[in-house]
Amino acid sequence: xAKAVGIDYGTKxxxxxxxDSSQIIATSLCAIENKHIFSFLKELLEKEEVDTIVIGExxxxxxxxxxxxxxxxxxxxxxxxxxxxxLIKTIDExxxxxxxxxxxxxxxxxxxxxxxxxxIDKVSATIILQDYLTYK
Length: 136
Known about the structure:
The chain is an alpha/beta fold. The protein contains 5 helices and 5 strands; from the N terminus they run βββαβαβααα. The chain has helices spanning 37-47, 69-82, 96-106, 111-114, 117-135; strands spanning 3-8, 13-19, 26-33, 50-57, 87-92.
């Protein structure tokens, strides 16, 4: 079975996670600058057999779109055009950043390292992908 990739989209940084080939466990991969995402994904898809990309979809508590929803939809359309053979899915990402931050605290990481926002992006991407894998 092919792997799945999870994405926590941000205008500055994008968190990336990847599943095992059984699509059971999500693992944090990296956080990269937004401007490098398509070259990074192209390289990743050449190295790994991936059949699905899951992107966190930002929503308000009342399930309405947020300010960043339009950017995420545009990003999703670019992914579909650039990688037409890959299934592109979105999943509700409400609270993933808060859950990620709490997970980082619970793991015992020192306060200085917790300020590294790319760490939160990576963990958020992992939560997004793990949620998808659990409920698909």
